[in-house]
Predict the structure of Peptidase, S41 family.
Amino acid sequence: MKNSVRGLLLVTGGMIAGALISASLAAPERAARTVLPLDEIRQFTDIYGAVKQYYVDPVEDKKLMKEAISGMLQGLDPHSAYLDENAFNELQEGTTGEFGGLGLEVSSDPSGVKVISPIDDTPAARAHMRAGDIIFKIDGKIVKDLPLNDSVKMMRGKPDTPIELTVLRKGSSTPITVKLVRAVIKVKSVKSKPLDDHMGYIRVSQFQERTASELAKALDALNKSGNLKNGLVLDLRNDPGGLLNAAIGVSAAFLPKGTLVVSTKGQTADAKKEFLTTPQDYQVVREDAAIAKLPAITKTMPIVVLVNGASASASEIVAGALQDHKRATIMGTKSFGKGSVQTVIPLRGEAKNTAIKLTTARYFTPSGRSIQAKGISPDVEVKDTAEGNFLDLDIREADLANHLEVPETKDDKAKAAKPAAEAKPDASGIKETVEPISSKPKKAPKFYKYGDPDDYQLNQAIAYLKKEDAKKNQSAAGTQEIQLEGGIKMKIEPVK
């Protein structure tokens, strides 16, 4: 990694929340422009003095200041936080893909700790932890009043040690006890496999420093086996985000060089940036150069991107870019909506490796859409299973306490006032309509793993790609109806 983690931009939805490792907190030119609120500072010192003098037990100055900083940042939004030495080290570990714990991306919640996403192939995923779960007890201790960092420390620990979580879950009338065993978490960022009918499947579970180069290898292998000819399914479900550089690199694999992927807007000039599909914006390790050498088919093949309510930050950036540039069809359910930038600012003083993680900007898709608290809406909505959403993925950024709001624009008001538009022809001149088939008695959703043969959304994506071939051979007259597996039918008719 270049200069350790300095200079890397992170954009994840949970504890490794999106961050730019920045320079020292000291910024003389900015400090000079700041007017100190003297009345509020006097009030703070009065309270500080009262605690020191009257609290039942003596309290160290260091503890009081740490708690004051934590409270100040926690009250801003769910992703700003104070990072002590352990939290700062854990943030760095998360970008390399190996760390200790349970394998959960989490955020704060008034009732405890909210699960943003369980990470593939970890104790949490194997125990069927779900996005939206609220952890309100850890080993019997209620954690709703604890800072998020303290709760995360309790879940971390030596490998092979047991831990018990008490979980509140939507649809369950009583708390659920989940027993797990801690492990060293080694996250494999990219998985791939060939599909039938000359198609390929790639899953990105987290955006790490080597995600772009691993994606390039997977695409090369699928191309050599002839499995990109009729399209690719790019699976970003339950991907909580990660490095922005990796998100730009993944986008660059499918978009022309120099294409806008995402922009940021904030209070300072440094926070106003545009990120393009150029090596200087995505290359972190030498192997990332492989992105620029990918075969031409990666820029033209049909793509379906799968997202859900636990697809956050970097995964939303990729989905938004491919959607805006009409490079892919987004399928699944609405994404999480974590569209803010956090800057990690190291602190001065005796304590080494401490910092604050501060929200400094918002992300916008190439067309100017805000991701924050809105998410990416799919082009084709497909539930988790034929019976409905198994993972209860209806808890998103907008549901988090103190989430960062996005000011409503004139365009937003105009769009809200307009009636829904009819389906428009795509580039091939074919109009699509997607509608549910006749309802049947609903069964309880069954647990499944992403990429397995019974992965309902993946099967819908495969059927959708097959439909692309049908478009090419469609005659000038007549309507064709294609049955997507498990409850959806699609009509394809010539545009009149």
